[in-house]
Amino acid sequence: MNNALTVTLRDLMSLEAEAHRLPSPPDWLAPGTPGGEKTSRRQGRGLNFESLRRYQPGDDVRLIDWGATARLRQPWIRSYAEECERPVFLILDQRSDMFFSTRRQTKSVAAAITAGLYAWRAWHDKDRLGCITFNDSQIAVHASQAPTRNLGPVFNDICSYNQRLAQQAPQDPDEDISLNRVLERALGLVPRGAWLALISDFHDLDAQGRSLLARLKRRCAISAFIMTDDVHLRLPDRGLFPVHYQGRRTRIALNPHLRQQIRQALIDHHAGLRQGLERLGIRVRPLVTRRDLLDQLQQGGGDA
What residues does the DUF58 domain cover (predicted)? Predict the structure, then answer.
């Protein structure tokens, strides 16, 4: 990564090796998913060796491990677990609120890199890959397909939306696509039994959005990657703090009391967001932009 403001196709392609270091996404079905409704296909011979156990009447004699049987002088069989594909679906937020940073990289760049890492992980695991990338005015959709077909188009959209965001700043967007609109679109796209990675700062998550997430949760496992900048933890005690939001520019004269109010308000906001998502059974992974992303993902996320 050479640019803290944008990502390039070369940046995303360079993540292939690092993706090997990611822990596997949660491999479980959402509660309430009926048996037999997981969308899957067998890979290779379709079975993974699980363990050896003693032969019991009724077991398939073709599974007898003759080497273990000869050594232990009683019949032992090899047990297998079915190897199933688990589709990976990414939802990536590249709206204007994500174009913010005080150190290292913007939230939009950190989100794009996170999506790139998990797209490569799907490639390595041979899991079908789908993606929705959206900004303030457009939504790019890729239905779940083999990663050999989808990885390139997904990366092209990630780069295009990310670079467009940097070009448009600091102008305020003419439109405002809500997270709710994207979640409604996802309801008809995310395969049952998939793992959904939702990568955003969730600044506009409301009651309707939580209801849509609850509906998605009934068909797939969800991890929410909350992109944060911990500037509120590093505010100075005093001084002028420039602020620009929705076309308005001003300066705030900081003092110890106001600093503590801002800090506590943002801590409470992040805590409430996390609790609301976890109440839905969603795994929450806060990611702080100034820290190494791969380290945070390996450790299960950072602290907001």
Answer: 52-269
